[in-house]
Amino acid sequence: MAGGRRARPCRRPIPGVRRRGSRRGKCGVNDLSDSPNALPGFWQAFLDAPMHRVQKLSILALTAMCALDGLDLFAITFAAPVIGREMAIGKAAIGLVLAAALAGMALGSLFLSPLADIYGRRRPLLFSLLMMIGGTLWTALAGNLFDLIGSRLITGLGVGTMAAVINPLAAEYANARRRDISVAIVNLGLPAGAIVSGILAAWMIPLLGWRALFLVASGLGMVMLAIVLLWLPESIVGILSRGGPATQTRLNHLLIRCGQPASVAPDAIRPRARRRSIRLLLTPAELPATVAAAAIFFLFTLSLYYIQSWVPSLITGAGHTVSQAALAATSMSVSGVLGGSAFAFLVPRLGLKRVVIAAVTLTGLAIALFGVVPMDLPVLVAMSVLVGASTIGGMVNLYAILSRNFPPSARASGIGFVIGVGRFGSALGPALGGLLFSLGHEHATVSLVMAMPALLAAVLLLRIRQRDYA
C-alpha cells in the first residue's frame, strides 16, 4: 500500500520477497527486513523452498484456531435467546453482552497485538488462547448479567489478540509462492467455525442446554493450547523479535524441522533495537500505508457487517418466514467458505490486488442489488449466496494484502491496529443501517447507501501501491 521513500520494499520475481544483492546493498538478518536491503541467505532459501510438511500442518493448525474464533464468537448469538429467557434479561442487556465481545476484540487487536512484535509470535498466541478458554468457561458458568459481560469481554480480548497474531504467523510459515493463499486459507476458518457453531447449537442447546455449547468450545480451546505449547513452531520473524543468545540455535532448529540445512551463521545475527514496532508505524515512511490500510478495512467491514446483520430482517420484512430467512443466512455462510476459497485460488493466476479489488467491488454491487431485486425467496437466496461469496472472498484476501503491507518487526502491531479500527466499522455498519431504517428509508435506499463504503474501499485499493514486505 502507499508508503514513503525510506522504507520502500524492493521488488523481485516472486511477490513478497526482496531481491538479494540488489543495487540497494546487502543486509544481515536484523532489522527483520525493515530496511530496504536484501534478505539474508537462509531466509531467502526458506522463502524459495517448497513448503515442508511442518509448514503445511502449521497452516492447518492456524486454520483450526481461526475456526475456534468463529465458534466462540457466534455461539453467543445462537444462545442469546435462551440465555435471555433463563436469566430474565431483556434485549438491551443481551445487546450489552454482544457488544462486550466486540469491545474486547477491538482492545485486544489494538493494544495487545504489539506484544507479538516484542516477545515473538507464540507467547502472545498462548496468552490469547488462555484468555479465550478462561472467558468461555466463565460464560458456561455465568449466573448473572455481570458474569456474561465480563466473560465475553475476556473472550473478545483473546479473539482480538489471536486474530492479530495468526495472520503474521500464516504469512511467515509459508514460502513466497504460497503465502497469499496460506493467509486466505487460515482466515476461511472463521466462517467455517461459524457454520460449525450453528450446527452444534441446533443440536446441543435443545438437548443439553446452552452452557454445554461453551463447555465444548472451551474444551476445543484446551486442545489447541496443547498443540501450540507442545508442537507449533515459532516463525523466523518471531525468533528474531524475541532475540537473545539462543537466536542462532533456534533459527537453525526451525530450519531443520522444515527440512532445510542449519545454515544460520553467527555473523548473520546482529543486535537490533527492540520495542520499536509502534514507533516504526508512525514514521513518515510507514504512516501513510498504515492509515490507508485502516481506512480500506474500516470501509469494507462497515458494508460487510451491515449486510450480514440485516439479511434475515430484510427477508422476513419481505413476508417470508424466520426459517426461510435462516436458510438464506446459512446459504450466505456456506457460500462464503466456497467463494472465499475460489477467490483465493484465483490469486496466483490474476494477482492478489486484482482479486481483492474484484471481490470488494462485487460486494458493493451485491449489497446495492439486494435492495432492488424481486422479493421472491429463490432470488433472495441467490443474492445471499452472491453476498457471502464476495464478502468473505474480499475479506480473507484483504488479510493477505495486510500481511505484505507492514515490515516484519511491526507486522503484528500493524495488522492489529487495522483489525482494531475495522471493529469500529463492524459495530457502526449494523447501527447505521438501523438508523436509516428508523428514519423511514426504504430498503433499496438503505442498501444503496451501505454499498458505498465497499465501493469506496475498492477505489482506494485501486489507487494505492501494493507493498511486498517479506
Automatic annotation (TrEMBL):
Xref: Pfam families: MFS_1 (PF07690)
Secretion signal span: none
GO molecular function: carboxylic acid transmembrane transporter activity
SUPFAM superfamilies named in the record: MFS general substrate transporter
GO CC annotations on file: plasma membrane
Membrane topology: Multi-pass membrane protein
Keywords: Membrane, Transmembrane, Transmembrane helix
Natural source organism: Sphingobium fuliginis ATCC 27551
Cross-referenced PROSITE patterns: MFS (PS50850), SUGAR_TRANSPORT_1 (PS00216), SUGAR_TRANSPORT_2 (PS00217)
Source organism, top-level taxon: Bacteria
InterPro entries: MFS, MFS_dom, MFS_trans_sf, Sugar_transporter_CS
Annotated protein name in UniProt: MFS transporter
Region feature Disordered, mapped onto this chain: 1-26
Membrane-traversing stretches: 59-80, 92-113, 125-146, 152-171, 183-206, 212-232, 280-307, 327-348, 355-373, 379-402, 414-437, 443-462
Sequence ranges assigned to domain Major facilitator superfamily (MFS) profile in this UniProt record: 58-469
Compartments reported by the entry: Membrane
